[in-house]
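To illustrate the input format used throughout this study, we show a single complete record. The first block contains the structure-token representation of the backbone; no residue identities are included at this stage. The design step must infer an amino acid for every position from geometry alone.
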């Protein structure tokens, strides 16, 4: 009713509008191809809807009111386009009316079939009509879009843009859903592994009619099914289809036929506080255990100094620990907030995103060099070593959070994956809790006298201890140089070496002036920041690290996994990154060992590696589907098993060899 009333109003307004001066469309379409095409092949097209702020367009089912876009294609003979593929929509509630809309720029994808005899340029033309609305008015709009598609071999020049647009599409479920009509309710059982975390789902029906849009929806989990309960509006449908929207803009496209829907299950949705509490507890536990993970090795020097200082004056120890904790919480909170902002902009980013940019690695390199020289007493800058002042301790805590959290330890992977699905306030609380967990050991030492009394007192030995602890920090600098080369190539490596030499000369000169009694600390800091900024500006555009595939393994892809599973092969899949020290430790001690390789070879185990060093969006999407936001992730696919077994994040050889022996029987 609302929809046809809106259509009538739009038709009435059209003649009056035609007598006015032409107006600029609030939504402007643009036709884009992923790349050139070959005769007889297919190429993806995108209709990009550029939307002015304050306006919105509509999904294929607009809801209670609105109109979907209609297109009339004018294509050369033999050419054809497939169905339109829409991104996951938003909900808009106005005066009790529920609309399914897009409030910002979005792309609707389709696939073009190129004629077998096409040559030269293929002219593509189309006319479209759509409805553009604000919260107060609606205006019917129309427009033409055209594209001259070259027929020639070549790379897909728009692949990065299309990857982003494809990420916004709902992913089709291969297993059909089932629905049952029970009085005034329709229950829809959607297959979804229990391991996939869902906090606030919503079901967008593709068909207009059976489902009441404005009625509340409820969800429950029953094994590997997510069951939606919606209010029936009219009729008994023969089939249902739509999109299950999940947290973070993700969606699953489903088709459902009549069938049994199990009763009971665990309620889902409206559990924000419970989900936040569980994620916070996981982040606290994960932060505490992170102190024992290989990820923290690069900052052993800083942690060692804090432990040593905690054995001194009680008031100073507590002040130092509180400042350190505040810095750690501020650091993880800031990283988490930045990650949420990047993801809100449409990029597929995960935890440790900061280590996928060569400019960030360069800054870490220079920071590690500065800390190494500070520990060697080449110069004095308390903020780096966290010495003698709450400001220094705060800086050290923030640095610890920045450097020590790229890998996911026990409890941490699931907590961070859940954090990315929560409302913004819940996500930030979880990230801050991670920093608190990281600092808990130092808080315990500072506030529990029995623990603090067991630490050695401050003394001359600390100077020698600092020099010894400069070794792992220097090793960190060397690791940053290697990672800089992996991410940015030779040019980035040369910039890193040049910046390191310049910083060493600067800081040694600063140390000489300091020993002469010249106060130069802030000037040195300003010069160092200028040097770091200049070096970062010289880093060439990232080329992305080439994925590493150890001998005897293959590059991971979902298609390759499905192929080997269909052949009945046992599979071991692991996701790693060059900057993840936990990953490298597991590879050295459990995966890349002769005994493990022999056991895998005898059992016919295929090993697939997903290298996430450069933030591969396909891996990011897969991690999100598993409810994860970081690496490492280890999966064992036993022949015939419906779902893979997720292995612990600290591996042993026996875990892998035992599973290989079982698979080989």
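Output of the design step:
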């Amino acid at each position: 009713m609302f929809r046809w009333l809106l259509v009538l109003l739009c038709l009435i307004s059209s003649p009056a509008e035609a007598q006015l001066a032409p107006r600029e469309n609030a939504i402007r379409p643009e036709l884009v191809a992923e790349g050139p095409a070959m005769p007889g092949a297919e190429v993806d097209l995108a209709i990009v809807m550029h939307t002015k702020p304050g306006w919105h367009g509509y999904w294929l089912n607009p809801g209670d009111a609105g109109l979907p876009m209609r297109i009339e294609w004018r294509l050369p003979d033999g050419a054809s386009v497939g169905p339109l593929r829409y991104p996951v929509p938003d909900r808009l509630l106005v005066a009790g009316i529920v609309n399914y809309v897009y409030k910002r720029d979005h792309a609707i994808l389709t696939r073009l079939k190129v004629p077998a005899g096409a040559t030269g340029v293929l002219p593509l033309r189309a006319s479209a009509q759509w409805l553009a609305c604000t919260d107060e008015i609606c205006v019917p709009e129309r427009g033409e879009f055209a594209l001259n598609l070259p027929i020639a071999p070549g790379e897909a020049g728009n692949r990065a843009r299309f990857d982003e647009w494809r990420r916004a599409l709902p992913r089709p479920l291969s297993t059909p859903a089932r629905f049952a009509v029970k009085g005034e309710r329709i229950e829809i059982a959607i297959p979804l592994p229990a391991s996939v975390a869902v906090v606030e789902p919503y079901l967008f029906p593709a068909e207009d009619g059976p489902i009441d849009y404005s009625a509340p929806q409820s969800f429950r989990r029953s094994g590997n099914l997510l069951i939606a309960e919606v209010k029936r509006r009219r009729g008994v449908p023969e089939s249902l289809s739509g999109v299950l929207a999940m947290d973070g803009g993700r969606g699953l496209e489903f088709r459902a036929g009549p069938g049994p829907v199990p009763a009971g299950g665990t309620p889902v949705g409206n559990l924000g506080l419970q989900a936040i509490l569980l994620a916070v507890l996981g982040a606290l536990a994960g932060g505490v255990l992170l102190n024992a993970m290989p990820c923290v090795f690069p900052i052993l020097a800083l942690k060692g100094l804090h432990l040593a200082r905690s054995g001194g004056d009680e008031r100073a120890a507590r002040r130092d620990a509180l400042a350190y904790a505040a810095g750690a919480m501020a650091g993880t909170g800031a990283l988490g907030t930045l990650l949420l902002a990047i993801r809100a902009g449409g990029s597929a980013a995960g935890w440790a995103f900061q280590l996928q940019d060569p400019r960030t690695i360069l800054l870490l390199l220079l920071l590690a060099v500065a800390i190494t020289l500070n520990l060697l007493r080449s110069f004095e800058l308390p903020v780096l070593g966290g010495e003698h002042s709450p400001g220094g301790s705060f800086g050290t805590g923030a640095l610890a959070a920045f450097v020590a959290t790229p890998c996911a330890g026990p409890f941490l992977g699931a907590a961070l994956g859940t954090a990315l699905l929560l409302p913004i306030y819940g996500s930030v609380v979880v990230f801050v809790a991670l920093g608190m967990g990281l600092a808990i050991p130092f808080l315990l030492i500072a506030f529990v006298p029995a623990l603090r009394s067991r630490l050695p007192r401050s003394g001359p030995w600390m100077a020698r201890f600092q020099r010894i602890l400069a070794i792992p920090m220097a090793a960190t600098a060397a690791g940053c140089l290697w990672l800089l080369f992996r991410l940015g190539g030779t040019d980035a490596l040369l910039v890193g070496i040049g910046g390191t030499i310049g910083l060493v000369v600067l800081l040694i000169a600063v140390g000489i002036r300091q020993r002469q009694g010249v106060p130069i600390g802030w000037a040195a800091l300003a010069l160092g920041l200028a040097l770091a900024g200049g070096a970062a500006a010289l880093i060439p555009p990232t080329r992305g690290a080439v994925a590493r595939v150890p001998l005897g393994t293959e590059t991971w892809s979902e298609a390759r996994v499905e192929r080997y599973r269909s052949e009945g092969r046992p599979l071991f899949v692991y996701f790693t990154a060059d900057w993840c020290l936990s990953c490298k430790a597991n590879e050295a001690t459990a995966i890349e060992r002769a005994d493990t390789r022999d056991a895998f070879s005898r059992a016919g185990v295929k090993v697939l590696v997903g290298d996430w060093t450069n933030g591969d969006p396909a891996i990011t999407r897969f991690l999100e589907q598993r409810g994860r936001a970081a690496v490492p992730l280890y999966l064992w696919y036993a022949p015939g098993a419906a779902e893979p077994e997720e292995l612990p994040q600290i591996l042993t050889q026996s875990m892998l060899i035992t599973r290989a022996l079982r698979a080989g029987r």
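Structural context for interpreting the output: DSSP finds 18 helices and 24 strands in the chain. Confidence is low (pLDDT under 50) at residues 1-22, 383-387.
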